[in-house]
C-alpha cells in the first residue's frame, strides 16, 4: 500500500472527501517527521515505534575499485515492529 492508496482507504472507511483524507494523512506523517527531526521517539501502540539512530563514521571500501573511502557519521530513522503486529503478520 502506498500513500495515495492509504488516503483512498481512509476516505472510504470514514466517508471523507479525498482532500480531507489527504490532509489527515499528511498531518499525521508531518507531525511524525517533525518529532523524529527533533530527536523524539514516535510510538504507535500495537504497531511499532520509530526513532532516529546515530551511526558513527567509518572507513569503507568501494567494492568495484577496492579504493578506501571515508563514510561520514549519519542519523537514520529506524522502525521497530510492535509485538502485536509481529504476531498478526506471522500467522501462517
Verbal overview:
The chain has 92 residues and is an alpha+beta fold. The protein is built from 3 helices and 5 strands. The strands form 2 sheets. The protein has a 3-stranded antiparallel β-sheet with strand order 1-2-5. A hairpin with a 6-residue loop joins strand 3 (58-61) and strand 4 (68-71). The longest helix has 20 residues, at 18-37. The two termini are 21 Å apart. The relative contact order is 0.12.
SSE layout and pairing:
Blueprint: H1 3-14, H2 18-37, E1 42-44, E2 48-55, E3 58-61, E4 68-71, E5 74-81, H3 83-89
Antiparallel strand pairs: 1-2, 2-5, 3-4
Helix pairs in contact: 1-2
Quick rundown:
The chain has 92 residues and is of the alpha+beta class. 42% of the residues lie in helices and 29% in strands.
Total strand count, please?
5
What is the end-to-end distance? 21 Å
Query: What are the secondary-structure elements, in order, as H or E?
Result: HHEEEEEH
* CATH homologous superfamily designation: IHF-like DNA-binding proteins
Number of helices: 3
Describe the global form. elongated
Q: Strand order across the biggest sheet?
A: 1-2-5
Q: Identify the CATH architecture.
A: Irregular
Strand percentage lies at 25-35%
Biggest sheet character: 3 strands, antiparallel
At the first level of CATH, the class is Few Secondary Structures
Mean pLDDT across the residues is: 96
Number of domains: 1
Amino acid at each position: 500500500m502506498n500513500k495515495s492508496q492509504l488516503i483512498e482507504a481512509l476516505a472510504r472507511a470514514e466517508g471523507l472527501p479525498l482532500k480531507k483524507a489527504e490532509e489527515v494523512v499528511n498531518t499525521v506523517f508531518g507531525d511524525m517527521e517533525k518529532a523524529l527531526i527533533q530527536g523524539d521517539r514516535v510510538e504507535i501502540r500495537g504497531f511499532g515505534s520509530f526513532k532516529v539512530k546515530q551511526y558513527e563514521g567509518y572507513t569503507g571500501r568501494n567494492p568495484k575499485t577496492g579504493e578506501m573511502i571515508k563514510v561520514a557519521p549519519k542519523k537514520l530513522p529506524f522502525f521497530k515492529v510492535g509485538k502485536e503486529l509481529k504476531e498478526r503478520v506471522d500467522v501462517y
